[in-house]
Each structure stands twice: as structure tokens, then as C-alpha cells.
Amino acid sequence: MSISTKEELQFLLHRAWEIEKKFESLSAWKGFVSVGQTFRSTVLTLARESYTHRLNLEKLLKSLNLEATTNEIPDGVFDFTGMLDSEAIQKIVENDEIVKDLYTKIVETTDPKVVSELSGGKNTDFFYQTLKRMIEDETRHISMVKKTAGRIERIQ
User: Which residues on adjacent β-strands are paired with residue 3?
Assistant: First the structure.
């Protein structure tokens, strides 16, 4: 797969924005009110940085002269009732794993010529550096949750 058109790149950046807003951020805030004090600091970090990622994606779209984000994906539904706090936080971080994979695919497969053309011939470093920084953030989130919550398996 190669992202070689404006439309493909716009579509994927929009979807990343929607995942950050409607899944990652929403699950984090719902989790924040559901988990105990032990995990709230971690969940707050996830929510705050998800918001920053949305702002970064909006800046990328603007710098590439792409249309504003859309709202095509419905909000995710998150119910942490009956879950241990560690289970809830692991459920929340699944969205970080998804968006990390999407950012990685965008970085690895976007033709730099497309980025250069869309940015008016400006330096493409901003695009790639922004996405790589967000990949690092998502990787850190996943690691942070694993350290905080460990690995929980329910016996059924």
C-alpha cells in the first residue's frame, strides 16, 4: 500500500482525528470517572495527550491545505461497569494501539512527493516529525499502562 494521492492522505488523517476524538479521548474520559485514584493520573495523561494529538492532526491538515476534519464515524460506546480498574485501563489503551498502527502506516507509506506538493513545496519534515512524535507518545502510553496495570486475565 502506498499513499500517493491527496484524497488518500486526507481520508487517513481524518480517520486518525476521529479515532483520537471518538475512541481514545472518549474512552479515557469515561475511564477517568470509572477507575479509582490509583489509575486516574495515568488515564488523565492519556486523555490530555489524545487532545494534543487531535490538535496536531488539525495542524497537519491545515499545513497540507487539506479540508477540515469530518465527523463520519459514530462515537464509540464504552462501559467499564463490572471491570477491575486494571481491566478498564487496558481496554482504554487498546485505542492507543490502533491509532499507533495507523500513524505508523501513514509514515511508512506516504509518498513524500504528495506531502511536498500539498504543502506548496515546503519542508516535509514537519509532517513526518509530528507523526513520529505521536507514534512515540502512543508507544509510551502502552508501556505506561502495562507497567501500571500489569496483565490481567479473568478466570471464567
Answer: 110
